Known about the structure:
mainly beta, 2 domains, 8-stranded antiparallel beta sheet, 5-stranded antiparallel beta sheet, 5 helices
Amino acid sequence: MTLKRRIIVSSMVATVALSALSLSITLAWYASSDRLSISAFEIGINASHNLLISTSTEEDSFKERIEKDELNGVDLFVPASSMHKNLWMDEMSDTPMFYDNSFYNVPSTGIPQIKEVKRGYFQQKIYLRSDFTYNVTLSLEDSFFKVDEEANQKRAELLHKDNDQYTVEEYKEKLDNLINALRLSILVPDENCYRYFIYDPFKKEGEVINYAGRLDNDNDGYYDTYEYLDHGQILQKETVYGEVNDRDKLVYNDPTDEPVNLEERNHYDGNSFIGESNPNAYSLNEKESFANGASFVTEDSISPKDLETNSSALLIPCEAGIPREIVMSIYLEGWDPDCINATMGASFINEISFKLAKGGN
């Protein structure tokens, strides 16, 4: 018997545009006012009778295609992060949570606040059902995240018309980089086989995304600092945002008191990953910190190569005739270096395909 081994989440088209609020604000990634709005989002699913899909567990709801009006909508894409995922995974939450670490008013402990991001990404519970006991995985042959060439070209022309700092081609190149920050995550919320996968479709060999580091969230040209009291004197230290192992082992350099020449910035080039150490503050020494035992938590993501060379990198177990619940999320990883203001206004086209991987669980 020949099985059709694929289901396809197709025609997922997302146009990401500047929100009205962002026009007068200069903060970079993670800034709540620098939101990315989505004006179109199409998703559908095709399948054979051997592998069906639904947004419900009801028997008669399984079919070959899910239409747009059956799925959750997205009004804004807001940079979020899967950092601190242990907070919800340890409790075996049935829904993934994403976090924001943009609050630059840090207490004297030096530990930044984290806030759950409750909007700004696509998330949907989906149920898979197979006629046979199979594992399901992503199909690289039929899945893609693509730049929307026509939409990005039009956006680049508008940007150039408003500000000729860059050529149309340069603006478009910057916009096209948005897809590098996109992530697809899949949670299998089953207490007997609880699994969470993060797929980075553009992950390069050896690439590491740190869930922590220094940021210039207030866009003043300096890495953010916090104040603390030491023997009656108010001092400043650079803030280390994100998920850090052994914060007490971080090592800092003494203030230099040497003047720093800051480059002028505009809203379009806002990038909180770039900054200078404030000469009046104790600055982080990453090399000595890591040698001292501190470390940054890194993104545990799957690359296309991982799926090509190791079929067990992403396997969703499905038992014959029993609906398998998964939670699919599409979001912008805030710690990705391409999640910056210059990618705002970009568009992408997305198609996701699942296939039967192999028998057994």
